[in-house]
Amino acid sequence: MSTFQIYATDSAPDQSKPVLRQLQQTFGFIPNIAGVMAASPVLIDAFLSLFQKVHAGTFTEAQIQTLLLTNAVTNACSWAVAFHTALALNEGLEPADVDAIRAGRAPEQRQHAALSMLTKTSIEKRGHLDERDVNAFLEAGFRRDQVFEVLAVAAASTITNYVGNIAQPPLEPQFQVHAWSA
């Protein structure tokens, strides 16, 4: 059971309220994890800014969800795994590929597998990638500069994953069907 408060727009610190309003517009609700983050205006503002930049990058939404789901599994964040499972399926990822990622395996789709493996390896090796790791990504049709974009997605999701692991916010009812544990 979490001991961290989940803020709503009316109860959040004043500097966090604009971010919560924006998330409400984006998702139609304020995710519990964002409600927890709202305790720190610095954190929630940085989170939103980084996620906006990530979603405006070169990867498709399906590719971003592949990265975010892989990161959530690698960081063992149950809340984020359930949330990104739902978003990945909504973005058209094959259910078998989503199941593979949730089980810690590479998806079948070649580019999604390359994305998943590079981000998982980056987290596990703490950024100490070797040329084989990078070449496997490049051979799937990605560019060298996109290696760093994968790191931007990992940085953004690390915020969510760590907040989820520390605060353990309850999973919203609409994501219960995708509940996961390490």
Main β-sheet, in a few words?
Answer: none
What value does the average pLDDT take? 95
Distance between the amino and carboxyl termini? 17 Å
Estimate nothing, just give the exact number of structural domains: 2
Under the CATH scheme, which architecture of the largest domain would be assigned?
Up-down Bundle
Radius of gyration: 16 Å
- Give the tally of β-strands: 0
**The CATH homologous superfamily of the largest domain:** AhpD-like
Oligomer: single chain
User: What best-fitting shape do the alpha-carbon axes yield?
Assistant: globular
| Low-confidence blocks of residues | none
Beta-strand proportion: under 5%
Percent helix: 55-70%
Helical region count? Answer: 9
Can you give keywords for this protein?
182 residues; AhpD-like; CMD-like; Carboxymuconolactone decarboxylase family protein
Summary, kept brief:
This protein is mostly helical and 182 residues long.
Structure description:
It comes from Paraburkholderia panacisoli. Pfam families: CMD (PF02627). With 182 residues, the chain is mostly helical. The chain is built from nine helices and no strands. The chain has helices at residues 17-27, 32-37, 41-55, 61-74, 78-90, 95-102, 110-124, 131-139, 145-167. Helix 3 packs antiparallel against helix 9 (145-167), helix 4 runs antiparallel to helix 5 (78-90) and helix 7 (110-124) crosses helix 9. It is globular, with a radius of gyration of 16 Å. The relative contact order is 0.17.
